[in-house]
What we know:
single chain; two-stranded antiparallel ribbon
Amino acid sequence: GNGAAGWGAAGMDVVIEALVTFHEATVGLEPAGEGAGARGSGPPAGVTPRRSFAELLDRSRKTVSDGGLAEKQKWNALLKKAKKRIGGWQAAWDGRATDGWCHGDFHAGNVMSRSPAPDGPGVLIDFAQTRRGHWLEDAVYFEHQYWSVPEMLEGRQPTKMVVEGRRRLGLDLGHDWSDLAAALRAWFAISAPLTLGKTHGRAHLDAAMCRLERLAAGQVV
């Protein structure tokens, strides 16, 4: 098969469709060992991540203070503003539905197809981190990987594409999905100083700062 990682922007439709199809296929699926018959034949439940926005923000502030960032003062001021909103972000995370399934490591390299984009269809692989959760966890995780390279998407908006795909298939979005999306974006933006030089570079740090500025101001991102 062909890996979607080399498809470029033309492959995004196939990649997103693979995720939405996965979400549709796992509706009502119980973890292995739970329920009876087919409902108990699903994958292991995995570990639902614990997220404390307060702890994350403290870790990020310490990293910024201890590091040699050129934007140190700006980051400190921004994280101070963000602190005023972490209660709402935490509430959105804690109140999310967790009866769906998340792939857990959704990126273009984990989608394969026998035909190159835009033909598809694509299928997800590597379910080592699959777990119970909310569909937005996959969508925003995927989205944030392109914050610093939006040109690779050629105008596509990954999370919006997942929303539209779910609507097309009649899948529930949840009444509070936009609040949760903001919380997840804030999580990844606040995390940016912690991932600098590890999983992301300087460009991602700058892109995350721009998003956190808007999120801290209560704007829609």
